[in-house]
C-alpha cells in the first residue's frame, strides 16, 4: 500500500498520466524537493511520463549562486535530468513580481506541446495568496487564488500539492532525511508575502487553528464562482462575436451593441473573460477607460490603452490591437516580380490573382490626399472611399496601396477599388500574424 502522500499525489495527477513529459519546477526548497523526491520514487513502480527538473537561476542574491550545484546533486542522486535556466530579472517596483514573470517566461519556453510543468505550491501558499490578493482589493478571479491547473504556452501548469499542508511536506522530508535550500530572502518581512507568512498567518492560526484550511477552502469556493462567471461571459459574448465585415482582418473584435445591452457588471465580466488571453487585465480604477470608449460618439474612434495593447472603437465594433501592430515599416517597396508574392516588412504580404498589370509596380502607404480613378465613378478621394467601405481606421495606415508609376492603381481586399485594366486581376493583402491574436 502506498504512503498517503504518494497516493494523494498520484490521484491529483491522474488526468495527466498520458502527457508526453512531466517537468518539475525545482527551486531546491522544501516544496519542490518533496515533489521531486515523491515523483522520482513513484517512477520506479508506476508508469509515469518521462521526468525532468528545471531550475531557474535569477541571480538576485549571492547566496543563490550555489543553488544550481545543490539542485544538480539532488537530481543526480535521484536519476532525474536537470536543466538550469538563467534569466534576467527586469528592474521595477516589485522584485518579487519581476522575478516571477521572468521565471514563468522561462517555463513557457520550456513547455512543449502537451507537456506538463509541475510546481510545488501547497495549501499554506494558497491561504497566503488569498490574503495577499484580498489586501490588494482583488476581484473574484484574483481571490480564487492559484488554480490547480492552467495553460502554459503549449502545455499545462499543474499544482498537484495544493491540497497538502506544509506540515505534511515537512514530515515527509524529515522521514526521508531530505536536504533542501532555505532562501534567506524568505525571512525578509519587507516583502509582503513574507510578512503575511511570518507575522499575520501565525496570529490567525493562534486564534483560529484551522485558518489555513478555511482560507484555502474559501479560495475553492471563489474558484467555483469564477467558473460560473466565465460561463455567463461565454453566453454574453456569443451575440457580440458575430464576424466583422472584413474576414481577412484577423484582429480580435466584438460587436458593440450586444455588449451595451448588458448591465455594466456583465459588460465588465464579459470583457474580462475576452481580454484575459490578450492582455494583463486592468485594475478597477482603470475601467473608466471602457466607459469612455463605449459612450463616445460614433465618429470619435476612441481607444482604451491597456498593458499589452489597445482596444479601439470603430463605428459599432471594438477591435483589439496588440503592441506588435504598430511595429511596421511604411517604406515604399518596389515589386520587381509581380508573379510572386511581395513580403512587406512586419506587414504580411501582398499577391495577385489573375494576370498582374504590366509596367513598374510598387507598394506605398497612405500619406494623405491620394486620388484614384474608380471604374464608373471617375476620380475619387481615397479617404472618402475608405470611409464608404467602413474599413476600421486603425487598419488604414497599414493598408498597402498598389502604384503604377505615380498612379494609384488598386487598394487590396476592398471590392471595386481597382483601376480598370486589360485582364482579370485582383490584389490581395494578408496582414501579419502574431501570438497575440493577429490571426
From TrEMBL:
Which species expresses this protein natively? Pseudomonas karstica
Location in or out of the cell: Cytoplasm
> Which gene holds the coding sequence for this protein?
tilS
The segment(s) forming the Lysidine-tRNA(Ile) synthetase C-terminal domain are 361-429
Role played:
Ligates lysine onto the cytidine present at position 34 of the AUA codon-specific tRNA(Ile) that contains the anticodon CAU, in an ATP-dependent manner. Cytidine is converted to lysidine, thus changing the amino acid specificity of the tRNA from methionine to isoleucine.
Matching Gene3D superfamilies: 1.20.59.20, HUPs (3.40.50.620)
- Return the protein name: tRNA(Ile)-lysidine synthase
| BP term (GO), one | tRNA modification
Reaction(s) catalysed by this chain, per the record, are: cytidine(34) in tRNA(Ile2) + L-lysine + ATP = lysidine(34) in tRNA(Ile2) + AMP + diphosphate + H(+)
| Signal peptide positions (record) | none
Amino acid at each position: 500500500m502506498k504512503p498517503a502522500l504518494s497516493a494523494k499525489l498520484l490521484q491529483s495527477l491522474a488526468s495527466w498520466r498520458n502527457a508526453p513529459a512531466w517537468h518539475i519546477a525545482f527551486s531546491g526548497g522544501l516544496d519542490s524537493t518533496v515533489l521531486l523526491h515523491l515523483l522520482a520514487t513513484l517512477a520506479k513502480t508506476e508508469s509515469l511520463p518521462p521526468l525532468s527538473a528545471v531550475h531557474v537561476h535569477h541571480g538576485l542574491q549571492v547566496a543563490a549562486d550555489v543553488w544550481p550545484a545543490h539542485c544538480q546533486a539532488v537530481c543526480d542522486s535521484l536519476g532525474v535530468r536537470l536543466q538550469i535556466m538563467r534569466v534576467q530579472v527586469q528592474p521595477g517596483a516589485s522584485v518579487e513580481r519581476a522575478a516571477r514573470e521572468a521565471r514563468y517566461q522561462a517555463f513557457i519556453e520550456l513547455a512543449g506541446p502537451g507537456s506538463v510543468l509541475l510546481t510545488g505550491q501547497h495549501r499554506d501558499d494558497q491561504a497566503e495568496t488569498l490574503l495577499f490578493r484580498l489586501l490588494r482589493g482583488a476581484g473574484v478571479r484574483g481571490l480564487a487564488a492559484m488554480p490547480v491547473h492552467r495553460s502554459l504556452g503549449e502545455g499545462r501548469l499543474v499544482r498537484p500539492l495544493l491540497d497538502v499542508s506544509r506540515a505534511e511536506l515537512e514530515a515527509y522530508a524529515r522521514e526521508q532525511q531530505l536536504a533542501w535550500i532555505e532562501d534567506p530572502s524568505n525571512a525578509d518581512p519587507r516583502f509582503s508575502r513574507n510578512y503575511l507568512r511570518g507575522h499575520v498567518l501565525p496570529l490567525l492560526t493562534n486564534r483560529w487553528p484551522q485558518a489555513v484550511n478555511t482560507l484555502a477552502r474559501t479560495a475553492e469556493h471563489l474558484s467555483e464562482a469564477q467558473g460560473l462567471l466565465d460561463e455567463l461571459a461565454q453566453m454574453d459574448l456569443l451575440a457580440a462575436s458575430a464576424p466583422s465585415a472584413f474576414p481577412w482582418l484577423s484582429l480580435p473584435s466584438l460587436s458593440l451593441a450586444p455588449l451595451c445591452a448588458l448591465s455594466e457588471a456583465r459588460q465588465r465580466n464579459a470583457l474580462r473573460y475576452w481580454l484575459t488571453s490578450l492582455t494583463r487585465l486592468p485594475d478597477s480604477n482603470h475601467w473608466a477607460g471602457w466607459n469612455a470608449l463605449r459612450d463616445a460618439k460614433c465618429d470619435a474612434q476612441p481607444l482604451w490603452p491597456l498593458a499589452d495593447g489597445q482596444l479601439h472603437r470603430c463605428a459599432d465594433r471594438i477591435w483589439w490591437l496588440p503592441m506588435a501592430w504598430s511595429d511596421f515599416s511604411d517604406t515604399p517597396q518596389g515589386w520587381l516580380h509581380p508573379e510572386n508574392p511581395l513580403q512587406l516588412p512586419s506587414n504580411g504580404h501582398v499577391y495577385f490573382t489573375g494576370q498582374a498589370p504590366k509596367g513598374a509596380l510598387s507598394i506605398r502607404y497612405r500619406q494623405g490626399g491620394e486620388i484614384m480613378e474608380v471604374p464608373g465613378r471617375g476620380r475619387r478621394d481615397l479617404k472618402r472611399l475608405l470611409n464608404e467601405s467602413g474599413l476600421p481606421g486603425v487598419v488604414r495606415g497599414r493598408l498597402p496601396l498598389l502604384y503604377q508609376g505615380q498612379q494609384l492603381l488598386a487598394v487590396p481586399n476592398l471590392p471595386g477599388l481597382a483601376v480598370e485594366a486589360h485582364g482579370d486581376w485582383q490584389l490581395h493583402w494578408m496582414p501579419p500574424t502574431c501570438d497575440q491574436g493577429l490571426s
